[in-house]
């Protein structure tokens, strides 16, 4: 199964076909959308083992970490969207002032048109399909551009799509920068981008030329505060290590660094060691081939992470071993300062820096001094600490006492804020990206007797009334 980039001429003709399908109202009937949503669920159900094998080939990820956050939620979300289609697309009748009650005032939910979804490599199915489900439910035609760094997954999706879905309305386009640049030159009715802040800015600039609305789901250096005097430190370490090690630490919502009261730093280190022993009890620990720890994407990222570890002025108190290629042991570094190499950028790997601080107020001050993160994690049983974070910080999500789990709650919007992006998705929030709320007003001719006051010549009496 060789990985093929979509030729530029096919990209143009595919786009033209999808635009025509939208104009021909192919995606307008809810019956059509429902059938396509169920077909998408079928695609992921019937091919789940091949899809998991492809992801394992590209990223070396364990199958539990594929079925739990990606394949299972896609099937569920597609079926739920099919069940909610009528409700989501229902015209709304807003309450209006009494004197306008004889007018027809309706808000219609209209598909935006032809939309583009661009995905990153770290969650090649979930991050493209969960917005895609919203776009199908909304009645849009869709091109999806998966990351070229998941060649096996991207090719499998390109092969499976035409077997399950109507290719005159939904297409996979494969390629790298040249193909994405060509796509961005076309006029879209919405662009949904997930990836780095650097490329997000390129996408936003291209979209601005056509006044195209966009959703930007970007990266983040998401902080953790352990309120060690008011929480179960062992439980906190276990939940942080689990969330951090999903996909080898290459997760947009990975707990990036930990702010911990100085007096408790060593307790936290011990708690991480205990959690590590429970998760990877083999003699060779997490580097054992049997551990199936998520692999680092490629030699470039492996070299980037090992160089960061080489430059850190903190103390490596656990881990630090690396394989030539693919894996880095979960590594805990203590006494990390804010100007350390590990604090420069989003880590996107299995390194846990501990930054010792005085307490909650300093944690909040540090977080407020940096870019707005995608998520802030706080481990505490204290109502006061919780309230301080609610009132004094900003982020896409605020999670208490767990990590990573928020992306499974589809009843809430998931997205960034400020530097970590704008717009959101999951469940109905995915759908909202791809519809226009169109206000419709009909002022009936029979209402004319009540409108006399507004016409010239203007009179002082009308103004008095
Ligand atoms: P990336 O920005 O390098 O690539 C994303 C997509 O953009 C890919 O499809 C790629 O082909 C395309 N692209 C790359 N360079 C381009 C260019 N010059 N012009 C046009 N298109 C271009 O991101 P990545 O390395 O694939 O993913 C990792 C990043 O994504 C991390 O920062 C991570 O935090 C972020 N991310 C965010 C979320 C979220 O929900 N906020 C989720 C997952 C990943």
Please sum up the structure shown.
With 465 residues, the protein is of the alpha/beta class. It is 41% helix and 17% strand. The strands form 4 sheets. Strands 9-10-11-8-7-12-13 form a 7-stranded mixed sheet, sandwiched between helices. Strands 4-3-2-5-6-15 form a 6-stranded mixed sheet, sandwiched between helices. Strands 1-17 form a two-stranded antiparallel ribbon.
Give an overview of the whole structure.
Helices cover 41% and strands 17% of the residues. The relative contact order is 0.13. Helix 3 runs antiparallel to helix 6, helix 9 crosses helix 10 and helix 12 runs parallel beside helix 13. A seven-stranded mixed beta sheet has the order 9-10-11-8-7-12-13, with helices on both faces. It has a six-stranded mixed beta sheet with strand order 4-3-2-5-6-15, with helices on both faces. The protein starts with 7 loop residues before the first helix and ends with a helix. Nicotinamide-adenine-dinucleotide (NAD) binds next to helix 7 and helix 8.
Mean pLDDT: 95
Beta-strand content bin = 15-25%
**Rg, alpha carbons:** 25 Å
* SS content category: alpha/beta
Quick tags:
single chain; alpha/beta; seven-stranded mixed beta sheet; six-stranded mixed beta sheet; binds nicotinamide-adenine-dinucleotide
Annotate the secondary structure layout:
Elements: H1 8-23, H2 30-46, H3 48-59, H4 64-89, E1 104-111, E2 114-118, H5 126-138, E3 141-145, H6 151-164, E4 170-172, H7 177-185, E5 190-194, H8 197-209, E6 214-217, E7 223-226, H9 233-244, E8 257-261, H10 265-279, H11 299-311, E9 315-318, E10 331-334, E11 351-357, H12 360-369, E12 375-379, H13 383-392, E13 397-400, E14 414-415, E15 421-422, E16 424-425, H14 428-433, E17 435-442, H15 460-464
Parallel strand pairs: 2-3, 2-5, 3-4, 5-6, 7-8, 7-12, 8-11, 10-11, 12-13
Antiparallel strand pairs: 1-17, 6-15, 9-10, 14-16
The structure holds nicotinamide-adenine-dinucleotide (NAD).
Family: Belongs to the aldehyde dehydrogenase family.
GO molecular function: aldehyde dehydrogenase (NAD+) activity
Protein name: Aldehyde dehydrogenase
